[in-house]
Amino acid sequence: MDQQKPGITPVELRNRQFAKKMRGLDPVEVDDIVRLAADSLESALIRIDSLSSDVRRLEERVHQFERLEASIKEALVTAQSVVDEIKKNASKEAELVKRQAQIDASKFTEIHERRMAEIKAQTDRLRSFRDEYVIKLKSLIAGHQEMIDKLADDHVKFDISEPKS
Q: What is the pLDDT of residues 27-62, one digit of tens each?
């Protein structure tokens, strides 16, 4: 706030000499009024100076708060961009984890499907081997049964007896 200088200072007002004229005003009253005006002017100037100082101090505080507000706004913008970046990175990482899990699940499924196919093929071979073995065993048993039957028939025909003592 610009402080304007009054046209006359309190000191100048107190020291001002007026020319004496006939039938002029009462010098004591004039001196009293001049002294009273000078005191009022001095008080007003002191008050104006004090208020100007208060205004400068308050304006500086306003500027401090404006700088603080700007810093807070900048910090909020920075924090928001950091939060956005963190969200973006977390989303990317989640997508990567999801893709890797899908790849791992696919590999796991493929490996186990292959293993199941191998086990099924091995089981089929074992069944086939078992079936062949059963057929051969039945054939062998049938052959032996024939031999036993033939031997039994021969025993009956030859009536081999034990010597009597």
A: 888 888 888 888 888 899 999 999 999 999 999 999
Domain count, the chain: 1
d(CA 71, CA 76): 9
CA torsion sign for 139, 144, 145, 147 is positive
Asked if residue 145 belongs to a domain, the reply is: yes
Closest CA to 18 of 7, 27, 9: 27
110-150 tens-digit pLDDT: 999 999 999 999 999 999 999 999 999 999 999 999 999 88
* Segments forming the whole domain that contains residue 60: 10-158
pTM metric for this prediction: 0.45
Query: Tokens 């499907």 map to which residue?
Result: 113
